[in-house]
Specification:
Elements lengths: L8 H8 L12 E6 L16 H13 L3 E6 L10 E8 L5 E8 L7 H6 L10 E5 L6 H17 L4 E4 L11 E4 L3 E3 L4 H12 L8 E4 L4 H14 L7 E9 L2 E8 L7 E11 L3 E2 L7 E2 L2 E10 L1
Parallel strand pairs: 1-2, 5-6
Antiparallel strand pairs: 1-3, 2-6, 3-4, 5-7, 7-8, 8-9, 10-11, 11-12, 12-15, 13-14
Helix pairs in contact: 4-5
Length: about 300
């Protein structure tokens, strides 16, 4: 008897034509903890840290809605010195702040709580995170590991593998932080091109899931402008106004591009739910997804 074919959520999403755009989860603060051992299926929550330290970190991160991720270098030996940690923050002004430290004992991680309330340092290069969390979802490892290797070979000091970032069906997923930009549907070749362009200040609509400081309809509106006019920097377009009635949105996107005349576009977006599908490899429950689609763009 032939065994049933294994379900892979990323393959199923591609077969259905699931849209990437507007699927970046909210987040402007990230806590990164290097952990070179096996990652539990639930990431940080599954680590056997001292209860007091773990509760302090969880409570401090929750207070600022920080996303907590375990990280490690691709293919590096496990005895290369102290583990690192970082707090990354994307401020509303567009400033990117980072604070880094090291830890050898659980107690050392308490410094993260203080860093969450500190100013952080400006001017550091971004961090490129590749989700390879196979215990959470098979596709994250199958599709993420080749991307992690390709990016690590190109930018060894910037790239880290990480635990679950959301959207398993869009693997391979890459997050640039503290920029707060999600990319999905990548492979080894496309990931290098995407990150290279991102680091050069040119964000393309292709493979873009969205900006993490924007709600999904706004993410879709900005992506539509990028798709129409070509790549731009992370803060070259901003959302200047929103009108909403039910599932209908009219979103004004203003350009910060050089030139005598300001750029303005009104993007109309409608939202709807898809039929239920299995959206992850390891979660057999059937769930609908919310999709935001651009219906028109007009220019001021």
């Amino acid at each position: 008897m032939t065994p049933p074919e294994r379900f892979l959520c990323a393959d199923a999403a591609r077969a259905r034509g699931d849209s990437l755009t507007g699927t970046a989860p909210y987040g402007v603060v990230w806590v990164l903890i290097e952990y070179r051992g096996g990652w539990p299926a639930n990431g940080f929550e599954g680590l056997g840290l001292q209860p007091g330290v773990k509760e302090l970190l969880f409570t401090s991160a929750q207070a600022v809605r920080a996303r907590m991720l375990l990280i490690r270098r691709y293919g590096r030996p496990r005895d290369e010195g102290p583990n690192r940690w970082a707090v990354l923050r994307h401020e509303s002004s567009g400033a990117y702040r980072q604070q880094w430290g090291t830890w050898s004992r659980d107690e050392d991680l308490a410094e993260i709580a203080a860093a969450l309330g500190g100013p952080g340092e400006l001017g550091l290069p971004p961090v490129v995170l590749v989700c390879t969390h196979g215990r959470h979802d098979t596709c994250c490892a199958v599709r993420g590991r080749p991307v992690g290797r390709a990016l690590s070979e190109r930018w060894p000091e910037l790239v880290w593998e990480c635990t679950h970032v959301g959207g398993d069906r869009f693997a391979a997923n890459v997050v640039v932080a503290p920029d707060g930009v999600y990319y999905g549907g990548l492979d080894a070749k496309s990931s290098v091109a995407v990150v290279e362009q991102h680091l050069a200040g040119r964000i393309h609509a292709e493979y873009l899931r969205g900006y993490t400081d924007l709600p999904p309809p706004h993410q879709v509106a900005v992506a539509a402008v990028l798709a129409r006019f070509g790549p731009a920097g992370r803060h070259d377009y901003v959302v200047a106004g929103t009108f909403r009635v039910g599932t209908y949105w009219r979103i004004r996107v203003v350009g910060r591009l050089p030139g005598p005349t300001p750029f303005e576009a009104d993007v109309e977006v409608r939202s709807h739910r898809t039929p239920p599908h299995q959206l992850t490899c390891n979660g057999p429950a059937m769930s609908p997804a919310v999709v935001h689609e651009v219906t028109s763009i007009s220019f001021g």
